User: Fold NAD-dependent epimerase/dehydratase family protein from Autumnicola musiva.
Amino acid sequence: MKKSFTHQFDLQKRTIIMKNILITGGAGFIGSNLCHKLVALGYNVTVLDNLSPQIHGDKNSQMNSPTYQNMLKAGVQFIHGSVNIKEDWIQALQGQDVIIHLAAETGTGQSMYQIHKYVDVNIGGTSLMLDLLANTEHNIKKMIVASSRAIYGEGKYLCETHGEVFPNERKDVDLSNGDFECKCPICKGPLTLLSTDEESKKHPTSLYGITKQVQEDMVLTVGKSLNIPAVAFRYQNVYGPGQSLGNPYTGILSIFSTQMKNNNNINIFEDGKESRDFVYIDDVVDATVLGLVKDEANFQVFNVGSDKPINVLTVANLLKNIYGASVDISISGNYRLGDIRHNYADLSKIKVMLGYNPKFSFQEGLNMFCKWVENQDVYEDKYELSIEEMKSKGLYK
Assistant:
């Protein structure tokens, strides 16, 4: 197996400078993996997490979960609290050198009708953090915030007539007629997909994307005003062992896996050719650690992905073959308002400035993910309930 990091010796030397790390949302998928990496590198890690039932299950399963128990065994200090409660922030910030702010509500579709919840957690929790940094004594020397590819909306394309363009949100009338591809915002002509770099237009098509854009802008702006170096990582579709198999609102690989393990058929939206940039969890952790230890990252934003688009139908068929599932995979033409068509990351900036290169191909990462899934309990498939919620709000067609 490939090494998950190539600069371990250098990192261990630099942990002396900023030793105490607070990770909000540290019990989540990215956070828990990041915790173990940082502990292995010699950092003191504190986690602030509310153990959301949507991700972690009910109270009994939360406290007995392998993720939670393994963090405690590793020596992680755990604070069961919320980023929306001032007193929890005050407790968590004591003695910390760095904040890695991962805590957020993450379902793109769900964000379109649970608006107050998403704004309250993603923007409200971040504003509370920044307010405390601006108005109380602390030792914070760096902030890292988890942003998202969702802030780009439909990303970057090439029009033969107008060059590089950034398409508008796709219209319901076109989607209902099976016309799924993006059009040039100027001439309405066909487009060729390009990788999306950090200078691309930010125009999210979901409430989730809006909150991540605001969250990112807040951290970078206030970080500059307080002279606290800040870094924003725009993660693409992160996957791998440890991803929640019980959350029906986010994570296409885990959603499909849970459906297949329940012998439920798979409904592919649109025409199955919509694509995403899937990045393996170890690569995401490595990128985040680079942002922690490298001064070159300060006050910068970086894409984190694999720089390769893979369509959803291909993903479903690969999973079916690996699991040996006997389910049917059908292309329905259904669609969700707020979904994007394509988006994959241009990694030029993070490669040059931080030395990041994704180490795991999608096939390698998928094999490891599926091997992990095979050893997990089969979770109840609640995906159709999430779809019914969207239907009732007029967001699923």
Observations:
- Residues 1-16 have pLDDT under 50 and may be disordered.
- The longest strand covers residues 142-148.
